């Protein structure tokens, strides 16, 4: 088994992508986060921090990647590779902040990292990945959807920050909420607002389809407007926009600690695929 850490310059990114993309695209639903992050890296929207491939002779066993300030994405890293990968990261990425991915793969890398480094691992969030079956928009929700425009940037930035405060206990990553909002416009994401009587009351963002899969997130309704179906309605509108753009799969993650989101998405056609976690390392 050979572990390769790829440089994060243009040549390194291109070499990693050429190896990783076929493996990730073989299952674009399972690897939706990795594909989305890789797409952002290639298009200059995300600064890479670690790009890792694992080989067995001429074959590719697995890949892992992360951007600055974010955990290592391990959806395509088999558990048997965890010890070898962590040994390389000990030199190449010694301040690894955490791990994210399906439960089994994340647990394997976490165990290897803790055993070697002595870091403490804290479970940040438990997630469930859903994929859209047949879209069933909710009926009788007051209001209409519209695409966000440049004049909405300040609102979108505030709502992204508020979503992060609730979902992950604060903003994370190297870019600010304003930079992420600007990047979403630049990358052509569908940023859909739900409006009632001319007032925005909900937001859902559908990323550009990568390997046929568009991932929705964030979905945010301000506290004063909750309980009226706006979150379901705006999510359905964003999903419809992604399908109209040609996506074959539409996916999203929910926080398993949030019973509301885990109940509303199945009602509009989403079905559970797998459970995942984000783990933070503390030294």
TrEMBL record:
Keywords: Acyltransferase, Transferase. It comes from Pseudonocardia acidicola. Residues 143-283 form the N-acetyltransferase domain. It comes from the Bacteria. PROSITE patterns: GNAT (PS51186). The keyword Acyltransferase applies. This is GNAT family N-acetyltransferase. Pfam families: Acetyltransf_1. PANTHER family: ACETYLTRANSFERASE, AMINOALKYLPHOSPHONATE N-ACETYLTRANSFERASE-RELATED-RELATED. InterPro entries: Acyl_CoA_acyltransferase, Bact_Acetyltransf, GNAT_dom. The keyword ATP-binding does not apply.
């Amino acid at each position: 088994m050979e572990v390769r850490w790829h440089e994060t310059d243009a040549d390194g990114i291109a070499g990693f992508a050429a190896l990783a993309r076929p493996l990730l695209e073989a299952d674009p639903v399972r690897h939706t986060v990795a594909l989305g992050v890789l797409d952002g890296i290639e298009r200059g929207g995300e600064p890479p921090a670690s790009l890792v491939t694992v080989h067995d002779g001429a074959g590719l066993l697995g890949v892992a990647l992360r951007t600055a300030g974010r955990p290592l994405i391990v959806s395509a890293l088999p558990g048997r590779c965890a010890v070898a990968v962590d040994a390389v990261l000990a030199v190449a990425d010694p301040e690894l902040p955490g791990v994210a991915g399906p439960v089994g793969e994340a647990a394997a890398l976490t165990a290897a990292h803790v055993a070697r480094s002595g870091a403490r691992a804290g479970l940040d969030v438990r997630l469930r990945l859903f994929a859209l079956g047949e879209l069933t928009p909710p009926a009788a929700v007051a209001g209409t959807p519209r695409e966000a425009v440049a004049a909405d940037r300040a609102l979108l930035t505030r709502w992204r920050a508020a979503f992060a405060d609730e979902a992950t206990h604060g903003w994370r990553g190297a870019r600010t909420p304003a930079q992420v909002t600007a990047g979403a416009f630049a990358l052509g994401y569908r940023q859909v607002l739900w409006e009632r009587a001319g007032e925005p009351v909900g937001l859902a963002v559908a990323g550009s389809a990568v390997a046929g899969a568009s991932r929705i997130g964030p979905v945010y309704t301000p506290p004063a407007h909750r309980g009226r179906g706006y979150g379901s309605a705006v999510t359905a509108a964003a999903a419809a926009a992604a399908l109209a753009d040609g996506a074959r799969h539409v996916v999203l993650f929910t926080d398993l600690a949030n019973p509301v989101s885990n109940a509303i998405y199945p009602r509009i056609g989403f079905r559970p695929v797998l459970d995942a976690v984000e783990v933070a390392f503390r030294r």
